[in-house]
């Protein structure tokens, strides 16, 4: 897929499953469980052990799933992630030097920003989607206030999203979501089927299907 096709896929799916793990052995079972639950977009963060190899593994095992790299905080990490096969980059911060690294390889950037100034800087330098982060702490009223004058931008909200409030965020104008532990955390017995069930529940809330 080219950059525009990847962006369209992200906007259609609306849900990015964020994989941030300390125990590398759990990564593949979690990914498998997410895919079984219908998740089609994965983000493996740079502070996950072996994240570059895990991106390669996921690309090989699941060729029909979009696999991106998260917590990309600078252009060096961006270059490493792109070389590993990441199909999109997600940042927690505004570092505009990341954008040309991604775009030169035909992949989009979901750039983390919070204030109107940060959001506008990211947009002016070519960020494809704005990641409003941390959305949960600042709340829905804050998002609505931001969305008003910046309604032409695409916003994925990250932080504090769950199955109980995700529809409300959609009604408020969120274009998509990044969801981490609320989706990917297994129970105390490490049963992957718990993740599969949560994935199905989130997808049902977003799409009213499955």
From TrEMBL:
<dbReference type="InterPro" id="IPR000887">
    <property type="entry name" value="Aldlse_KDPG_KHG"/>
</dbReference>
<protein>
    <submittedName>
        <fullName>Bifunctional 4-hydroxy-2-oxoglutarate aldolase/2-dehydro-3-deoxy-phosphogluconate aldolase</fullName>
    </submittedName>
</protein>
<comment type="similarity">
    <text>Belongs to the KHG/KDPG aldolase family.</text>
</comment>
<dbReference type="InterPro" id="IPR013785">
    <property type="entry name" value="Aldolase_TIM"/>
</dbReference>
<dbReference type="Pfam" id="PF01081">
    <property type="entry name" value="Aldolase"/>
</dbReference>
<comment type="subunit">
    <text>Homotrimer.</text>
</comment>
<comment type="pathway">
    <text>Carbohydrate acid metabolism.</text>
</comment>
<dbReference type="InterPro" id="IPR031338">
    <property type="entry name" value="KDPG/KHG_AS_2"/>
</dbReference>
<keyword id="KW-0119">Carbohydrate metabolism</keyword>
<keyword id="KW-0456">Lyase</keyword>
<dbReference type="GO" id="GO:0016829">
    <property type="term" value="F:lyase activity"/>
</dbReference>
